[in-house]
TrEMBL record:
Pfam families: ABC_tran, TOBE_2
Entry keyword annotation includes Transferase: no
Full protein name: ABC transporter ATP-binding protein
Family: Belongs to the ABC transporter superfamily.
Biological process terms in GO annotation: carbohydrate transport
Length: 348
């Protein structure tokens, strides 16, 4: 069992606020991803849970027990960092075994535990190699095995895939998801990569400038972003955002007229996803010259400029036109997202 509760947790350094009033309960066995741009407070939040950083305010509870004053080693959490920090002089076997020795675990159980952990991350063949004789992905797996061997109730992972190439990332990502399930552990995973977040998480916490912007399942966050920050951070490409005006239920901006919206008159920010739009030669809601065309294989991405915004729509893969040709983009009303022009908060 490991339920983690953060209650009003903040971290300040002088006047600078790294994490601001973080409130969240992470369920036993949940896979929670902290997502946000560099400097938003993800690592600091994680370090406070691990006990490597003291909160300035608030309480951290594990299974109902306040752990603020517990040393990291007494918290039953195992952390995997982006830099693997392996011992260069120890072979893979001894690296994986290290936490057991440090924690005084009964020596007669070491071999079995190390073999089990190394098998889980498919390192059995490499046990006698030194870290310098391994690839980046293999070293990363040693770091994972070293966390697994402790059989913790909580895994904290800070960008564990950031040093891997694209292909290894995908396979190691799948392995992490599977491991967390198999070990029945509660996992908190930090990343700035929204695809990693969406594929791994039961729930995602989107952070910016130390403040939680939204907590929800990947689908919630994709379908109903709470504000323009979340909207512009999630999705590939990110949601299109156009500043304009509502008058009599119609949204207008340069090149743009979308009737039939339920919103009161005044300035507004309208959002839509490239994949929800359709592209034709004429008759749609946005009529503008093509700024650029990208052939993606399964589709053609068409972009136009609306003021300072670059707006993309997904066309059929057979769609062909030249830069500068007029194009027409249609957005179904129920795929229009409306945000307050000033605060960026979602309306409705
Ligand atoms: P990244 O993805 O770049 O690792 P992050 O979201 O993990 O970013 P944190 O490492 O949590 O960000 O840092 C949050 C903010 O707190 C940053 O602006 C950082 O500069 C600041 N910060 C972190 N540690 C300290 C410290 N010891 N003293 C002062 N400011 C700090």
């Amino acid at each position: 069992m490991a339920e983690i509760k953060l209650s009003g947790v903040s971290k300040r350094w002088g006047a600078f606020i790294g994490v601001n009033k973080f409130d969240l309960t992470i369920a036993d066995r949940e896979f929670l991803v902290l997502l946000g741009p560099s400097g938003c407070g993800k690592t600091t939040t994680m370090r406070m849970i691990a006990g490597l950083e003291d909160p300035t305010d608030g309480e951290i509870l594990i299974d109902g027990q306040v752990v603020n004053d517990l040393e990291p080693k007494d918290r039953d959490v195992a952390m995997v960092f982006q830099s693997y920090a392996l011992y260069p002089n120890l072979n893979v076997y001894e690296n994986i075994r290290f936490p057991l020795r440090v924690r005084g675990v009964d020596a007669s159980t070491h071999n079995e535990k190390v073999m089990r952990a190394s098998a889980m991350v498919e390192l059995d063949e490499f046990l006698h190699r030194k870290p310098a004789e391994l690839s980046g992905g293999q070293r990363q797996r040693v770091a994972l095995a070293r966390a697994i061997v402790r059989e913790p109730n909580v895994f904290l992972m800070d960008e564990p895939l950031s040093n891997l190439d694209a292909k290894l990332r995908v396979s190691t990502r799948a392995q992490i998801k599977n491991l967390s399930h198999e070990l029945a552990a509660t996992t908190i995973y930090v990343t700035h990569d929204q695809i990693e977040a969406m594929t791994l998480a039961d729930r995602v916490v989107v952070m910016e400038k130390g403040i939680v912007q939204q907590v929800g399942s990947p689908t919630d966050i994709y379908d109903r972003p709470a504000n323009t920050f979340v909207a512009s951070f999630i999705g590939n490409p990110a949601m299109n955002l156009i500043d304009g005006e509502i008058a009599g239920g119609a949204f207008t901006a340069k090149h743009t007229n979308i009737p039939g919206l339920k919103a009161k008159d005044g300035p507004i920010t309208l959002g839509f996803r490239a994949e929800d739009a359709t592209v034709t030669a004429e008759g749609g809601h946005i009529n503008a010259p093509i700024y650029t065309l990208e052939l993606l294989g399964d589709a053609t991405m068409v972009s136009v400029r609306i003021g300072s915004a670059l707006v993309s729509a997904r066309a059929d893969k057979t769609f062909r036109a030249e830069i500068g040709d007029m194009v027409s983009i249609t957005i179904p009303q129920d795929h229009c997202h409306l945000f307050d022009a000033e605060t960026g908060a979602r309306l409705e």
